[in-house]
Amino acid sequence: MKNKIIFIINPIAGKGKGRVIETEIQHYFSQKNVEFETFLTKSIGHATEIANQVLTKNPEIIVACGGDGTINEVAQALVCSNVALGIIPIGSGNGLAANLHIPKSTEKAFEMILNAKINKIDAGKINEKYFFSNMGLGIDADVINNYAQTKTRNFLGYVSASTKAIFNFQPKKFSIELDNEHILDDDFYFVFCSNSNEAGYGISFSPNAKLNDGKLDFLAVKKLNFIKQIQFSACVLGKQIEKMNDAKVLQVNSVKFNSNQPKTIAQVDGEAVIFNQNSIEVSIVPNALNVIVPN
């Protein structure tokens, strides 16, 4: 038999598609000459716990079945290990899967896992937590925080969360160091560090980002009036953010955010995270993760 494959499934991802996909996995892989096991997550953070536990079984591949949040949780345990991450995208945004060209077809994704072609990608690090697509501390964090509280987990829910954020967002003051040099000190509408060129739903704030270039793509946009907010949205949708005069776009190795607030709401790979500190450090870890990709 080939080495073991572990599937970690978010049962509520994709409007409950996770519950169905476990049956599909069992039917498909039981016909192949491969040893496999499936595990269902029960709460936020549980996928990381499962991944750490099953590493003792010496699997060849651990497959995350869910959205960007589930993928992030599983990948946390695999950074700088020899175990490869497989992805079956059944979430709402699926930004990292889109960047990696993971098939949306379940059967084609299964075939990809069996073929096991591996690429190395970088990982971002925010304090002691890893991210693989992007993180942000501006209006995007408020959008994701709103989205987490909505019952409509699809593109319409994302639009609703974005609209609420646009009308209620207050710019956030940060002192920002890029590659250990103080560069920016202002009220910001948007601050963003990206490893991937996809943020989900086909939206990109960093269209030139690459998963394996050893760099973070940094974007900062200072406080905007309402008209310029509309212009910003148009530039994002047109993937032409570098043409906006108010946007600062750079490639960096590290970013340090300092705030006078005791806590900061961030979005990390599309999930809302609260940091109970006024200093946040972001860096890049080159070639940190083995990922299964299409041939």
TrEMBL record:
Every DAGKc domain range: 1-130
GO molecular function: ATP binding; kinase activity; metal ion binding
Claim: Lipid biosynthesis is one of the keywords in the record: yes
PROSITE patterns reported for this sequence: DAGK (PS50146)
GO cellular component, as recorded: plasma membrane
UniProt entry keywords in alphabetical sequence: ATP-binding, Kinase, Lipid biosynthesis, Lipid metabolism, Magnesium, Metal-binding, Nucleotide-binding, Phospholipid biosynthesis, Phospholipid metabolism, Transferase
SUPFAM superfamilies: NAD kinase/diacylglycerol kinase-like (SSF111331)
Pfam families documented for this protein: DAGK_cat, YegS_C
InterPro entries referenced in this protein's UniProt entry, alphabetically: ATP-NAD_kinase_N, Diacylglycerol/lipid_kinase, Diacylglycerol_kinase_cat_dom, Lipid_Phosphate_FormReg, NAD/diacylglycerol_kinase_sf, YegS/DAGK_C
Coiled-coil boundaries: none
Required co-factors: Mg(2+)
Superkingdom of this protein's organism: Bacteria
Record GO biological process: phospholipid biosynthetic process
PANTHER family listed in its UniProt record: LIPID KINASE YEGS, SPHINGOSINE KINASE
Protein's recorded name: Diacylglycerol kinase family lipid kinase
Source organism of this protein record: Empedobacter tilapiae
